[in-house]
Amino acid sequence: QVQLVESGGGLVQPGGSLRLSCAASAFAISRYALSWYRQGPGKERELVARITSTGGRKNYVDSVEGRFTISRDNAKNTVYLEMNNLKPEDTAVYYCNANNWAYDYWGQGTQVTVSS
């Protein structure tokens, strides 16, 4: 069964850090662009970060540029999102996505709450 399973979310104070992981099963991520999206309270889902299938290009939404880093480990079939200097406005459910010309897979999401 194809699955993307996120982990690593939680409660963190402003200025803190978290590392999200998304492990894929039943398919190989090497042929997919991988992305992290988030949906905050009362907000629409937005693209946070994306990495191409080769890992050669990374894109970020302006609000996280310089604070978040997306990476992939094809051998572990996992994508990561390193989040530093977290702010209350980063509070959201974070979803990973694997996408290519034929398929589009989503994880179930992991909650990140930034609060003092």
Helix/strand-derived category reads mainly beta
The first-to-last residue Cα distance is 39 Å
Radius of gyration: 13 Å
Strand-and-helix sequence, N→C?
A: EEEEEEEEEEE
Brief digest:
With 116 residues, the protein is an all-beta fold. It contains no helices and 11 strands.
Characterize the structure shown.
- By secondary structure, this protein is mostly beta strands.
- Helices cover 0% and strands 52% of the residues.
- It has no helices and eleven strands.
- It has strands at 3-7, 10-12, 18-25, 33-39, 46-51, 58-60, 68-73, 78-83, 92-99, 104-106, 110-114.
- Strands 2, 4, 5, 6, 9, 10 and 11 form a seven-stranded mixed beta sheet that branches. Strands 1-3-8-7 form a four-stranded antiparallel beta sheet, with no helix packed on it.
- The model has no long low-confidence stretch (mean pLDDT 96).
Indicate the topology.
Layout: E1 3-7, E2 10-12, E3 18-25, E4 33-39, E5 46-51, E6 58-60, E7 68-73, E8 78-83, E9 92-99, E10 104-106, E11 110-114
